Amino acid sequence: MVEHHSILSMLGLGSKEIIYWVSIVLFVGTYTMIILEKFFHRVPAALFGGLLAVFLGVVTPEAAWESIDHNTMFLLIGMMIIVSVLIESGFFSILSATALKLTKGDPLKILLTFTTLTAVLSAFLDNVTTVLFMVPILITMTARLKLKPVPYIIAVVLASNIGGTATLIGDPPNIIIGSIGGFTFMDFIVNLAPIIVVTLIIGTAVFTFMMKIKGDLEPKIKDEEELKKIVEAQRVEFDIVLMRKGLIIFGITIILFFLHHILHLEAGTIALFMASVLMLWAKENPERILERVEWTTLMFFLGLFIVIGGLEHSGVFEDVAHMIAGIIKDPILGILILGPFAAIISGIVDNIPFTMAMSYVLLDFAKTAAFDVEPLWWALALGACLGGNLTIIGASANVVAAGLAEREGYPIKFFDFVKAGTPVTVITVIVALGLLWLKYYILGV
Q1: Dihedral, 56, 62, 66, 70 alpha carbons, nearest 10
Q2: pLDDT, tens digit, 9 for 90 and up, residues 34-55
Q3: Full DSSP string of 82-151
Q4: Are the CB atoms for 279 and 249 separated by under 8 Å?
């Protein structure tokens, strides 16, 4: 093995303590560049931060590679290829035209239909797949109706992250908690699904109200005859053979997602394998299909994973997790501390390494705690998943939706997302944790 010499070690600054603080500075610097989007595009900012971490020696090249969540990357690439084929076949244009006719172009009906459907799908698929599926339809619809697509896209992303919290397979933090904590699919349904149903209703009311006061739910085409003509005059070109192949592969992929625990295969492996099967079967030009893959989004994830890997490898996440466990003296205090803190962390960094570190700490904490720590597991799940709505980089679905929107000419600004996401996050986290406390310590169920 080639010995790794870093810039920091050659300067005599290779101690663990210095690397610890450099990893924090690198993260803060990268995050600052992402926020200052007028000066830096988020993709080169993330790549620069990640590769600077390797260059300085905060992480070795091997550790940087291990920091990348390959399951997420494979899932994104695989589902983007499948969605690309479905776009090529005209499938999303048909869905858009159908949805337009059903909602009759009413902005409020469009919002409620898409957010509800997204939340439900996100509970049983991963929310990245759901967003990849819904956003193209939504962009086409809103563009036809001369509405601003961005508020609707943000609303769908928020609903996706809320809905994904309800089940074991809806969001990656839940999969981690289920695996390490030993919880089953039904444990999540019983403990989180009822809470999320109420939280979704309240969350939907919040972002509907915000869109209402901003005028985003005002129809831009007010002449009923003109609107009727737009709804009825949908002419969609499609390739029925390609569409059939794409839908068969998509359906098989979803079935395999449900069976991935039995098959002992990651969702990313399934998605990428089925995408390769589809490309072989469809016999479409691979270059044409791969052009629609959001490579810029993937590069953003690549850089961000390495930056966050620096925090993980230097022990920052482990220290934070132990600090939280150290101040939890009773279960109610645990819910009040762990839930909001997990939400804040998930809003600014990838929630996967933090959830993993905190899960192992909770596992050890349960051995010596004088109370039942099960409610703390659910507080962690609620905070880690719902907190993803805080910023545009808080969850994978957010980044993917932003990439899709930018490609179509509708960039989502960092602070535009924060303005919508922060109120929804604060209210939904308070409601969800309040219901969790009510469930365990008032109703005792």
Answers
A1: 110
A2: 888 678 888 899 899 989 988 8
A3: HHHHHHHHTHHHHHHHHHHHHHTT-HHHHHHHHHHHHHHHHHHS-HHHHHHHHHHHHHHHHHHTT--HHH
A4: no
How far apart are the C-alpha atoms of 393 and 300, rounded to whole Å? Answer: 10
Contacts of 96 (CB under 8 A, 6+ apart): 137, 140, 141, 144
Q: Are 299 and 43 in contact (CB under 8 A)?
A: yes
C-alpha 392/C-alpha 238 separation (Å) is 34
| Alpha-carbon span 438 to 436, nearest angstrom | 5
Residue 202: what residue type? Answer: I
Residue-wise pLDDT tens digits, 205-255 = 999 999 999 988 888 776 666 666 666 665 667 789 999 999 999 889 888
| CB of 107 closer than 8 Å to CB of 216 | yes
Contacts of residues 152-155 at CB distance under 8 Å and 24 or more positions apart, as own/partner, are 152/110, 152/111, 152/114, 152/216, 153/401, 153/404, 153/405, 153/410, 153/412, 154/207, 154/401, 154/412, 154/416, 154/417, 154/420, 154/421, 155/111, 155/114, 155/115, 155/207, 155/208, 155/211, 155/420
Q: What angle do CA 123, 156, 268 make, to 5 degrees?
A: 50
- How far is residue 166 CA from its own chain's centroid? 14
**Distance of CA 336 to CAs 57, 333, 339, 431, Å?**
37, 5, 6, 12
Would you say 141 and 100 are in contact if contact means Cβ atoms under 8 Å apart?
yes
The angle formed by the CA atoms of residues 157, 295 and 124, to the nearest 5 degrees, is: 35
pTM: 0.78
Nearest one of 47, 45, 55 to 22, comparing CA atoms? 55
Nearest-CA neighbor of 275 among 141, 74, 100?
A: 74
The DSSP result for 134-187, as a single string, is: HHHHHHHHHHHTT--HHHHHHHHHHHHHHHGGGSTTSSHHHHHHHHHHT--HHH
Rg (CA), the chain: 22
Tell me which residue has tokens 């600052």.
32
User: What are 15's two structure tokens?
Assistant: 């101690």
Write the burial class of residue 234 (CB in 10 Å: 0-12 exposed, 13-18 middle, 19+ buried): middle
In this structure, what token pair is assigned to residue 370? 């004088």
